Structures are given as structure tokens and as C-alpha cells.
Amino acid sequence: MMIVAIDGPAAAGKGTLAKRLAAALGLPYLDTGVLYRATAKRVLEAGKDPADTQAAVEAARSLGKDDLARTDLRDAVTSKAASQVASIPAVRQALLDFQRHFGNSHGAVLDGRDIGTIIFPHADVKLFVTASVEARATRRHLEFLGRGEDVALADVIADVQARDEADRTRAAAPLMKAADAELIDTTYMDADAAFTHALEMIRRKTTVRA
Questions:
Q1: Domain residue limits at 16
Q2: Name one GO molecular function term (predicted).
Q3: Among 47, 112, 188, 196, which is 20 to 30 Å from 54 by CA?
Q4: What is the pLDDT along the chain (210 residues), one digit of tens a residue?
Q5: CATH code where residue 119 lies
Q6: What is the reported pTM?
Q7: Whose CA is closest to 170, among 87, 65, 85?
């Protein structure tokens, strides 16, 4: 049973990479960011403030499979709200057991902000995936346009910068590279190059032959 922890800032490409690695390694995959997005969506749809600790914790504890399967969790409003609920220590605690149970059941590839530092500090492999703010904002902007959302690139850049600051400075599990994590900078890498590079790193650290 192997745990691969992939952390990094928004739009660095860690989700795409994690899915491909999970398929190649024959492991379950969990996008832990979806947990916070689904929590945020529940809060918003209840007409409550994402910064309201009680409302956010209640939403986190009530998540079900249907919440995680939603396809409307990546709009700009939900993304901003997800950052707010993720900064609440009680919300992170409420979702901690879910993440650990998922990984400990059959092994897994998990991506998020604190997988290698908090959720699975003893993961078999830790990767920290990052890219420049401009590259990440451009990717996110294209995602919005692809969904028909008319969002200015300058606004996306500002949002990415704000999200980075919130992730780095929050009191609960701030985003940081684990000391033993391998760094992958995808600024000038396409998805195929990042996948090949990451898989080679995993091969060097484990006995995997995928």
C-alpha cells in the first residue's frame, strides 16, 4: 500500500498530474480540494457566510458522495469561498479523518495543500508542484473561458495571488513544501512532461515498475 502526497498552489497542475499517476500506479485518487469546494458550495447555497465557522463546520461534517461528484464546484465564487472555509481550523479538523481513512484503506494518490505536511507526513512519496503566478493564472483563465465564464485575466491573476497569500499565511496547516518533498516546477512543462518527470521520481524512491 503506497501513499503519494502531492501538494502545491492553485492551478499548478497537481490535479491533472495526480490523476494520471493514480491511473498509472493503480491507486485510488482523491482531490482533497474538492472537499473544501463542496463545503463552500453547501455554505453558499444555504445563504450563509463562508467565514462563519459554525456554518462551515456543519457543512463539512455533512458532506456525502453526491457533494463530491458535483460538476459545479470550480466557478470563481466557489473557489474564493473554498479558500475561506479552508482557513478555518475546525473545518480542516472535520475533514482530516475523511482524508486519512481514504488513504489508509487501499493506498492512494492525494493532492491538496497539506497532504505531505499534515495529512500524511510519512507518505512514501511527496511531490510539491508549483509554477509561476502568471502561468497558473493563465491556465485558470482558460478554464473559466472554457466554461463560458467571462473573467478578465487581470482579475484571475489577482485572485491567484490572494489565494497564495491566504494559503501561505493561514494559521491552520499553511501551504508549504515538506522538507522531504521533491519539487516539480511546471511553468514551462506540459502535462506529459510533468507526468514523466514525476513517475521517474516515484520509481527512484520506491520499487514501483509502472
A1: 3-130+176-201
A2: ATP binding
A3: 112
A4: 899 999 999 899 999 999 999 999 999 999 999 999 999 999 999 999 999 999 999 999 999 889 999 999 988 899 889 989 988 999 999 999 889 999 999 999 999 999 999 999 999 999 999 999 999 999 999 989 998 988 999 999 999 999 899 889 988 889 999 999 999 999 999 999 999 999 999 998 887 655
A5: 3.40.50.300
A6: 0.86
A7: 87
